[in-house]
Amino acid sequence: MSGVNDLLASAESDFVMFTTTVCPYCRRAKNILEAKDLSFEEHDLSETPDLRIEVVTLTGHRTVPAIWDVRGDEPTFVGGSDDLMEYL
Fold first, then answer.
1. Is it the case that residue 2 has pLDDT exceeding 80?
2. What is the pTM of this model?
3. By residue range, what is the domain housing residue 47?
4. CB under 8 A, 24+ apart: contacts of 68-72
5. Does the pLDDT value for residue 1 go beyond 50?
6. Is 18 helix (H, G, I), strand (E, B) or coil?
7. Residues 46, 20, 40, 70, CA torsion sign
8. How many separate domains does the chain show?
């Protein structure tokens, strides 16, 4: 399962977010990060169902957004938009 890990390792932003096209919680998470002037990369799971399966397998998190903090040496799985609010 290298798709998610490759995306996390190659990220050139503060956060990596896996989303879908119609998701109010994804929009909320983007707004939170933008308000705090934190950069993020977004990957739409609607277009890559295999990647969605991999996200669920790695995290057990079945909903979107699925957010990682990639600012440190190792990516940290944050969770969804509510988790992001608590995390920050």
1. no
2. 0.90
3. 3-87
4. 68/8, 68/15, 68/16, 68/17, 69/14, 69/15, 70/8, 70/11, 70/13, 70/14, 70/15, 70/16, 71/14, 71/15
5. no
6. strand
7. negative
8. 1
- CB neighbour class for 56 (10 Å; exposed up to 12, middle 13-18, buried from 19): middle
Place of tokens 């909320």: 28
**Token output for 17:** 């977010």
Q: Which helix (H) or strand (E) holds 65?
A: none
The bridge status of strand 66-69 relative to strand 40-44 is unpaired
CATH code: domain of residue 28 = 3.40.30.10
Per residue in 19-72, pLDDT tens?
998 999 999 999 999 999 999 999 999 988 899 999 999 999 899 999 999 998
Q: For residue 29, give both structure tokens.
A: 């998470």
